From TrEMBL:
Keyword Transferase (UniProt): no
Naturally occurring in which organism (per UniProt): Erwinia aeris
The organism's place on the tree of life at top rank: Bacteria
Membrane topology: Single-pass membrane protein
Ranges annotated as spanning the membrane: 20-44
InterPro entries: MFP (IPR050739), Secretion_HlyD_CS (IPR006144)
Family, per entry: Belongs to the membrane fusion protein (MFP) (TC 8.A.1) family.
Protein's UniProt name: HlyD family secretion protein
First-listed, main subcellular location of the protein, grouped into a coarse class: membrane
Alphabetical keyword list: Membrane, Transmembrane, Transmembrane helix, Transport
Compartments (UniProt record): Membrane
Length: 424
């Protein structure tokens, strides 16, 4: 009874009655199979699918927000503005101390004192030169006037002497006539002739003195011009030295304290540093929002395999991280601008939502500007505006093909890999 064969036989016995169900008719199986195949063939031959790609981007304004950076290393000693202030182009924002100290004191202050003392000496020299020029030219002018007066007097004397000599010459001729008539002696004629030639010699001496006076007047006039030019040249040289010292003084001020100014009009959104902090070259100091915002737009970065299939005016779907698609859904936008050259690494670094900024992935990447149709999101009776830097995901719709073409894409790849040289 407990043999192995008896136990196996008991296990194989049924506990109830077996009921056989009728099978599915063959014609129904064939009908369903044919219907499925026909529907599948119609679906893959007539149906289409548009390839899509999801790209990242960020919201920004037109004009864009401005980041003001420090151009030098220094310590913030003064803050002129605060968050929320409206500022104009050129308004001071921060004052930085960039001076260096040594055991002898602050380098810029010592240099400034030296330059200021040199400027004082140069100004004194210029003042003395101007005073000396004034005195020297006054003396030369006085001498010129004296010699001019002497020249005029000697000219008058010569004119009168010439008149007297002409009279004496007439008398001498008369004496010659008198002597020929025997009215006077020869000695009297000789005395008259000698007196005439003596006066003639005196006239020559006066003429020489007059010419000396004229020459001295000319020399003094030349000396006035020469001395004035020499003094002007020396004053000009000292003024050039003064200008150089003033430039050095400006450079010293630049090496002591500098003022960071706003580059455009706008509203201060945030300030990164406060007085007492040290900043390095390239550190962000504040962010400035444009006072008038024209519109918001989305900057997205598209790979090169998607750029040929998009064009201005195409519609895209946008999903904002700040407004989850599960609650707010997707938003429509329009492509406005597509660059035809890859974006540079430095340009991508200016956008925090760019692939190069976030992950450093290799490109090339093309910048595409998209304008959202809704600039303000309405939720629960509130108006939620878009803000700078909001990250978003965009869906681009690329080429459209039949479904069977997408299914046969691997075969096309195999065909291309097996194809030989292309002659055309």
């Amino acid at each position: 009874m407990f043999r192995k064969e008896a136990i196996e036989n008991r296990k194989m016995q049924w506990h109830g009655r077996a009921i056989l169900l009728p099978g599915i008719p063959l014609w129904l199986v064939i009908l369903v199979s044919v219907t499925f195949m026909v529907a599948f063939l119609v679906f893959i031959t007539e149906g289409t699918y548009t390839r899509r790609v999801n790209v990242s981007g960020e919201i920004t304004t037109w004009p864009r927000a401005i980041n003001i950076y420090s151009s030098v290393q220094g310590i913030v000693v003064k803050q002129f503005v605060h968050e929320g202030d409206i500022i104009k182009k050129g308004d001071p924002v921060y004052q930085l101390d960039v001076s260096k100290s040594t055991p002898g004191g602050v380098v810029s202050e010592n240099r400034r004192r030296d330059i200021e003392s040199q400027l004082v000496r140069v100004r004194n020299i210029i003042s003395h030169l101007k005073e000396n020029k004034k005195v020297t030219l006054a003396m030369l002018e006085q001498q010129h006037m004296q010699y001019s007066d002497a020249f005029r007097r000697s000219s008058d004397i010569i004119r009168r002497a010439e008149e007297g000599i002409n009279i004496m010459k007439g008398n001498m001729e008369n004496y010659r006539k008198y002597q020929s008539k025997g009215l006077i002696t020869k000695d009297q004629l000789t005395n008259q002739v000698a007196l005439y030639y003596q006066q003639q010699n005196n006239l020559l001496n006066l003429s020489g003195q007059n010419e000396q006076n004229a020459l001295q007047v000319t020399n003094l006039a030349s000396q006035v011009q020469t001395q004035a030019a020499e003094f002007d040249n020396r004053i000009y040289q000292m003024e050039l030295q003064q200008f150089d010292l003033q430039k050095e003084l400006v450079d010293t001020d630049e090496g002591e304290e500098i003022v960071i100014r706003a580059l455009s009009d706008g509203k201060i959104d945030s300030m990164s540093v406060t007085p007492g902090q040290m900043v390095n070259a390239g550190d962000s100091l504040l962010q400035l929002l444009p006072q008038v915002i024209d519109h918001y737009y989305l900057i997205i970065w598209v790979p090169n395999d998607a750029v040929p299939y998009i064009s201005p005016g195409d519609k895209v779907n946008i999903r904002y991280e700040a407004f989850p698609a599960e609650k707010f859904g997707q938003f429509s936008a329009t492509v406005t601008t597509i660059t035809r050259t890859p974006a540079t690494a430095k340009e991508m670094l200016t956008y925090q939502g760019s692939p190069g900024y976030s992950s450093g992935t290799s490109g090339p990447w093309y910048k595409v500007i998209v304008k959202p149709e809704k600039q303000i999101i309405t939720y629960d009776g509130k108006f939620l505006p878009l803000e700078n830097g909001m990250k978003a995901q965009s869906t681009l719709f690329l080429e459209k093909r039949k479904i069977y073409q997408w299914m046969l894409s691997p075969l096309y790849d195999m065909k291309h890999s097996a194809t030989g040289q292309v002659d055309e």
